[in-house]
Amino acid sequence: MQSRTEKPARPEPLDIREMGTPIDGEPQYSERRLFLQLHVFEECHDPTSIVEMLEKGSLNAVLYDDLNHPTGIGVLFLAEDPATLITETRSLLQNVQETLNLIYRPEITMIGRTYSSGREPNLEEWLINKPRKNVLNPDFPWAIWYPLRRKSEFYQLEPRDRGRILGEHAMLGRSYAAEGYASDIRLACFGLDTNDNEFVIGLVGQELYPLSRLIQDMRKTEQTTKYIESLGPFFVGKVLKQFNKHLPET
Question: Distance between CA atoms of 65 and 112, rounded to whole angstroms?
Answer without folding.
Answer: 21
